[in-house]
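Predict fold of Phosphate/phosphite/phosphonate ABC transporter substrate-binding protein; 325 aa.
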Amino acid sequence: MKLRDILLGCASALACFSLNLTTAAAQDCPRGALDTRFCDVDGDLIADTPTDPSEWLDPDTLIFAYTPVEDPAVYKEAWSDFIDYLEEKTGKEVVFFPVQSNAAEIEAMRSGRLHIAGFNTGSNPLAVNCAGFNPFTIMASADGSYGYEMEIITYPGSGVEKVEDLRGKSLAFTSPTSNSGFKAPSAILKADFDMIPERDFEPTFSGKHDNSILGVANKDYVAASIANSVKFRMISRDVIKEDQLVTIYKSQTFPTTGFGVAYNLKPELQAQIKDAFFSFEWAGTSLETEFSKSNEAQFLPMNYKEFWDVIRKIDAANDVSYSCQ
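Predicted 3D structure, encoded as tokens:
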């Protein structure tokens, strides 16, 4: 089945919403915060693969999406060598699908139209609990270190020299599901500075990290909260100059994009996909060319329960619900 057939086969979002929804809701099983469609018998906080083979997905064409943080054309090329390798390891056609928003990416996996994905830090818990996303790896540097920091940035001469100077001004977020683009700065501003959106500053939403960074660099936004890994890659590509930005706040290190699969892919296929991630040789590839700009050089095994603990705590501080709407 080709991508065009997959995408056009759904006449509307509501039609797609009902596809491939398994019936764990009818089962009496432990599931924690997971949607009622899923079970979590082993307590690892992610959806169990169905035990009934009739519920497994084994599509002829695998759809892969990378979190919508920057120019989709850049990342289609960046992932091209890895996708070729994934096709070799699985024996299936693999199509890169450039999603336009975190919500669209989550919905695509929830409805069975997305099989392999990288979800950004903030949307990982919602993808896990609502869409059955099973993350198992993140990118890391050659020495095994990983992650990024949330920064609040402004431009030279903006009149904003410290976080408190944002009172009465505007702050650009990216999207409500983004950790560094919304959830982390919201929790930090409230807890550490007693600053709340609309009461103390005017929030705006740019949609993506690169939009926020470019907006500040071009003085369209006074300030923005962003992931500095995106900033570093944009500086490396000469999209912006380092001296166009000033950082007034830098957070602790957070886990970066989590990569994984839909929970109900055939177990053998899931194993092949995992093997592709962990056996892929980065040297000389399009993936290395792009992601070495943020010092990433390998796929590191991880587990959601441990790595995303701090993100779930930030969500709890923000009263974020993982219920599917």
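Confidence is low (pLDDT under 50) at residues 1-23.
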